[in-house]
# Entry
Amino acid sequence: MALRLSYFGETSLPVEIEGFTPDWACDKSLAEIAKFEIFHGNQKLPLAEMFRVTGDAADKQFDFEGNLHGVHWIGAQMASGSIHVHGPAGRHVGSGMKGGQIQIDGDARDWVGAEMHGGRIHIHGNAGHLAGAAYRGSARGMTGGMILIDGNAGNEIGHTMRRGLIAVGGTAGEMVGFNMIAGTILVFGQCGIRPGAGMRRGTIGLFGPNPPRLLPSFRYAATFQPQFVNVLLRELKSHHFRIDETLFSAEFDLHHGDLVSVGRGEILFRHAV
# Structure
């Protein structure tokens, strides 16, 4: 049985539930869970003043219901268990998470999976800016795990990421993989300007039509059929991420860069026939 959390708050102020995770709640009674302190703007409130709490947390499963567009830090720092949001979610979903799974049946706002270390986040809608990114002043973004975005994503996804996989089924904004240290980003729709700017290592796959012009600090290397792409595509399919089947037999143009940095990164375009 899951712990069911029905949101009934109607407020223009942000609601922050950082630290409220399946790991924390699994050995707590409903009465203890209801008293968990959250922020409503700059005021502390018990969870029960914004959520109706029912069910059981012993199985480390959370089901959130309602419009959580203004509820932030859902699943932040979680290490195990699962969270299912039946609707939209706010900022910082899965920030710093170490394990477990988060599913959002709607859109999520900025900073999805920021600085995450492990686990999987699946957004069945659109995501805002800076998914998988480093927070301002931090040296590293996500260092492991997987972020799947079925819809579109905003700017600077994978900013300073170190490891892990980000996949975007729709379009992505500007500066995908900015200052990327390593890891993998795949975009299946169109992409904004300056992908890979400052990247040191890692792979960016831009598989949609009309790829953007690369910075002059990238160099064409080869046209080939990399087997690792098929491995990644099969992995995404296993998580019910929609894949264009023609990609399994496609050729790709490989570009190395960013040569103003270490220059060992790679950007792949689907080869135009």
User: Anything to note?
Assistant: The radius of gyration is 19 Å. Helices lie at 22-25, 30-34, 227-238. The chain has a mean pLDDT of 97. DSSP finds three helices and 17 strands in the chain.
